[in-house]
């Protein structure tokens, strides 16, 4: 048996490594979003900072980006599922820009909701997060978009990445479930307010 790899073997090995890097990239994206959503929940439950309706839409948009990533974990690397993430990132940008413009001039009843983090309030952070997500998804398409084996790549071929993706996906689904229940308690069947949980009054 030859100790030297053939061109086909080298090509297959490079494809394997390149695919692993792609999945690792997606894991990093979702880990960052899960961390941001966790921080938002800590501010809500630990410091009693109830989210406004536009804040809730921003959380929904971030969860939507995660959903697009999870579809790529489940069904393979395709532009269709990357496009879902990109669509929700654009939605996040629209909502966060709207809220930032509404609150950029502080006036009674229209000041920023919640505490500032590193000098910026959450809507402004969401604008930056949305731009970063759009850039990250665009880079994903540019770097890996022309790879012919992309649609056949499955994360199950990488046991450690598969386990990490499975655990992280379950955690994101848990975040989504907690937020859904929280919205129902906060808003009931009516309009959301940032003063109290409607169903607890």
UniProtKB/TrEMBL annotation:
The chain crosses the membrane at residues 21-44, 56-77, 84-102, 122-144, 165-185. It is a multi-pass membrane protein. It comes from the Bacteria. GO terms for molecular function: protein-disulfide reductase activity. Its main location: membrane. One of its GO terms (cellular component) is membrane. GO terms for biological process: protein folding. The keyword Ribosomal protein does not apply. Keywords: Membrane, Transmembrane, Transmembrane helix. It is found in: Membrane. This is Disulfide bond formation protein DsbB.
């Amino acid at each position: 048996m030859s100790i030297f790899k053939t061109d086909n073997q080298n090509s297959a090995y490079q494809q394997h490594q390149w695919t692993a890097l792609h999945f690792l990239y997606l894991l990093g994206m979702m880990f960052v979003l899960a961390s941001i959503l966790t921080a938002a929940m800590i501010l809500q439950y630990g410091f009693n900072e109830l989210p406004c309706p536009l804040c809730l839409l921003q959380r929904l948009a971030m969860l939507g980006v995660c959903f697009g990533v999870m579809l790529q974990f489940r069904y393979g690397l395709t532009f269709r599922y990357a496009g879902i993430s990109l669509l929700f990132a654009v939605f996040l940008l629209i909502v966060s820009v709207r809220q930032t413009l509404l609150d950029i001039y502080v006036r009674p009843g229209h000041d920023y909701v919640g505490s500032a983090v590193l000098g910026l309030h959450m809507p402004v952070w969401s604008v930056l997060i949305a731009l970063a997500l759009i850039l990250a998804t665009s880079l994903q398409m540019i770097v890996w978009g022309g790879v012919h084996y992309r649609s056949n790549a499955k994360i199950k071929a990488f046991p450690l990445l598969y386990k990490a993706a499975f655990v992280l996906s379950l955690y994101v689904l848990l975040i989504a479930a907690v937020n859904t229940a929280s919205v129902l308690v906060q808003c009931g069947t009516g309009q959301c307010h940032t003063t109290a949980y409607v169903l607890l009054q």
